[in-house]
Amino acid sequence: MGVAGPPGPVMDRDEVDRALARLGAEHEAIETSLLALQDHAGRRLLEGAQLTGTTRERWAAAEQAITLLWTYFDTYTAALRTAREVRSRRKWPAREELAQLTELLRGDSVTVASSAGQQGAPTLTGPAKLSEHFTLASLVARMNELYASSLDMVVAADAVWSALPARIDMLAAELGRTRQLAHSVGVRPGEHPAGDDLERITGALTRLREEVVSDPLAYWQKAPGSSAPGGGRPDTTAYDRQARALEEVRREIEAVLTVRQDAEARLAKLRDVLSRADRTLAEARSARGEVLAKIAASEVPAVSGPPTALQEQLALAAEYRRHGQWHRLSPLLESLESKGEDELLRARESLTAVTQPLAVRAELRGRLDAYKAKVARLGFAEDPFLVERYDAARRMLWSAPCDLRVAEEAVLRYQRAAADVLSAPTDQRGES
Asked: Which of 22, 100, 251, 275 gets the most CB atoms within 10 Å of its CB?
């Protein structure tokens, strides 16, 4: 502190009484705050904890600050008591007493001696001094500053301890239940990725709890722009990350459990799908032989054999089910279900492609017969020209092998001839 300056004009009796009342109220408020800080659960926990990192450094500084606070408070109490004693001498103080009270209440009259053990060492307030001088107002301001910083540290640590360890313990309990469930379906470390994830989460939660207990301030997020003690919230980022990871593993375990419950039904459905694909391919192979025998000059695609690789995987899936290897069965079933549907679709497409020439021939036959029926309905069934064209087209469509290109041209010739006859005037029809 600087050299004491003049306290200003001598205070009158009323000013002295008002100042003493204000300082008395401040004294009471400061004492209440210091006692509350002394009894704060967070402070008691900090005193008994094995601290590390940021918290250990800040608590060492806070302990010094709290000790200094009580020293300042005792000095403030003594100075206030002296001023009250001077004021209590008489109802109407003399000018000399008013001057003394002015010096006590406004001047740098409060001296705080440094302890012998701290001489020559730096303190919270700068380089060590043999003594410091304050006005009562500046001493109150210094106490408020030290109190706010100490309370901020205590409240922050207490908030983290109140929030995170309990949540970590609850998550650890959930982790234990999930691990038991995982073991029941064969999900174990080294055998399934989810088992490895559970081991990693277990280690992460153990380390997180140790760090939170020993260094709570490392998990404190101060509110931006906040100057109030304890302004902020516990930083749950690391906890939330492990909680999300455990939730993902839990969903995966539940999926494996679902596989165990409906594995037989899914395997039966898979067998049916692959059987239908096999029958469809067999039908396609049979149809291909028929097409090659009945249709000429047509490109007929080859038909693949039955899906033996899928049958082998299906047998492996059944083996997994018999031995209760649900964690292996789950992904295999999902893969087989997708591949089985693809195989059935491929077989149907193969059958469609192979039988396309037969479909074209059937369409031409239907078109030819439809025109013949129309011609007969209009009374030209016996027209020699139409009969000749019809017989030519029919021979091509009902003979084997059938040349579809030539047969289609014959059908078109019959269609055109029928159209010409039907559109001719009545007298010309008679002449024909």
From this structure: 100
